[in-house]
Amino acid sequence: MAFNPQGIPSLPDLTHPHELMKFGSQLLQSSLLLVFIIIGLGIAIALINFSLGKYPTEQAVFFAQWSIRYSQLLQGLQHLALILIIIITGFFLCSTLANRYHNWEQAKVAQVAASIAGDKLEQIAPQISYITEEPYSYTTQVEGKIVKVNDKQKVTRYINLSASEITVKIDQSVDVQNRSSIYLTDYTANYKVNNILTDINSFFLEVPPPNGYSLLSNYKVERDGTKLEQTNPGDYKFPFVLKPGKNTTFKITYKAQGGPRWVYRANNQLLSKFRLVAKANFNNADFASGIVPSEIKADAKGTQFTWIFDENVSVKNPFGVFTSVKPVGRTGIIPRLLLLAPAIFLWWILLLYLSLHINLKNVAIAGGIFFACLLTLTYSSRLINAEYAWIIISVILLSLICGLARGLNSNTHSNIQFYLAAIISTICGAILPVFAFLIPVTGLTLSIAGLLSVGWLSIIRSNN
Predict the structure, then answer these.
(1) pLDDT confidence of residue 31
(2) What are phi and psi of 21, to 5 degrees?
(3) Domain check: are 398 and 457 in the same one?
(4) What whole-number distance in Å separates Cα of residue 350 and Cα of residue 353?
(5) Could you tell me which residues come within 8 angstroms of residue 372 by beta carbon, excluding any fewer than 6 positions away?
(6) Considering the domain boundaries, does residue 316 fall inside one?
(7) What is the pLDDT of residues 290-329, one digit of tens each?
(8) Is a pLDDT exceeding 80 seen at residue 451?
(9) Higher pLDDT, 365 or 412
């Protein structure tokens, strides 16, 4: 079944043109509303100032106070507007990245699932059948009377194999068309049949090729060294004669190409003197269906699995070999982090505001650095472990923030204080919170970051 990875539901993705147009229209409406509010407030102050024109003293006092407050309000609105613009833009950037990363993760999961859960080569154990006549009775109506009739009917019965000696060599290749793994198998099996019946000597050997093959070659059935020919094309049912109390041996060989699993199905038979040796000439081979092999040998070339059943054993599930892969774990971590990134940025920028005197230019630079680091983390985590990637990025982030703090104060003696404030604020507000969402102990790490932030603000307050 085909699997198409989907994005996170109801999450905006700016790579979609219709969502980009919708976001632009909403942003324009919000901007116009803010502009009208500021203009309206300015007009209101101007009207009040004009109405107080006859009273110069009151006008001077009122206008001076409100002009100062209005200028302070405008200055505060500039910082607030810039932070909102960075947070909103960062949210849409992060939501787009979260959607892209989610699609990449789901495609990776689908690729792994297709490599181990696709078609399979399934070899069914041969069956020895014979036809016999058995009595049965039925009732019918003759001249208005119910009459019981005794008759005979032909039925098909089966006998179990006396011994099975199977060797299969498996090589792994790549299907160029679908870019998935396939198996190339070389199958050799010797089956011993013993006629335990006293009145039957005509049998049929039913030995079908494996299910799920895409290519079958060199298929051959031999009885005591003599090749048996098919009576009908496509019919893998071979008649033979075996006297009561006698035994014979059949050899089946073929080469097949098929799905990335090979299994053997006992077909509800009792296995006696059974031995199956599966030689997987590739790495990461493992046994399938939970039927533990009697012996496992691993070397540089691959792994050999051996199943041995001496007495009558019933095996319900197919057993064999498949290619094991590492589980795709911890999915969704980066998308979750990206969705919470604007909140982390707000936490960090508030610590910087309370620790340093930063202007609009520095806020814009800090926002660009933060989201650029997240962008780098998003794509570098596809190549290396996310925790290691963030440690490397954190060093770069600290160096950039130290460079930003250097420009805040030209006094060389107090630069150390600025460096310390920038580093501690960045560690508590950005590095630790992001790292918390990359590791299992998220709550504990966030708690440590919060305590460090409160402790640092308390130190700043006591110094001031």
Answers:
(1) 67
(2) -65, -40
(3) yes
(4) 5
(5) none
(6) no
(7) 788 889 998 888 899 999 988 888 888 888 888 776 666 6
(8) yes
(9) 365
Q: What is the pTM for the complete model shown? A: 0.59
Let me know: does 250 contact 267? Beta carbons within 8 Å. Answer: no
347 and 449 inside one domain: yes
392 has pLDDT over 50: yes
Short-list 16, 251, 27, 260, CA closest to 121: 260
In which domain, by residue range, is 126 found? 121-273
Residues forming beta bridges with residue 305, ordered by sequence position: 278, 296
Rounded to the nearest 10 degrees, how much is the dihedral formed by the CA atoms of 59, 63, 66, 67? 180
Contact 11, 99 (CB under 8 A): yes
Give how far Cα 439 sits from Cα of 90, 109, 390, 435, 442, Å.
23, 21, 11, 7, 6
Predicted confidence at residue 16, as pLDDT, reads 58
Q: Is residue 313 domain-resident?
A: no
- d(CA 406, CA 415) in angstroms, rounded, equals 7
383 shares a domain with 260: no
Position 240 in a domain: yes
Strand partners, 167: 188, 277
- As a whole number of angstroms, the distance between CA 52 and CA 68 comes to 17
Residue 173 shares a structural domain with residue 86: no
Same domain, 76 and 147: no
Give the residue from 450, 446, 443 showing the smallest Cα distance to 350.
Answer: 450
Neighbour tally for 272: CB within 10 Å: 17
Q: Measure the CA–CA gap between 341 and 345, rounded to whole angstroms.
A: 6
Query: Which of 95, 117, 139 represents a domain boundary (last residue)?
Result: 117
Residue linked to tokens 């790495």: 283
399-450 per-position pLDDT tens digit: 888 877 776 654 444 567 778 888 888 999 899 999 999 888 888 888 998 8
- Residues 106 and 128 placed together within one structural domain of the fold: no
Which whole number is the average pLDDT over 359-375? 88
Q: How many domains does the chain have?
A: 3
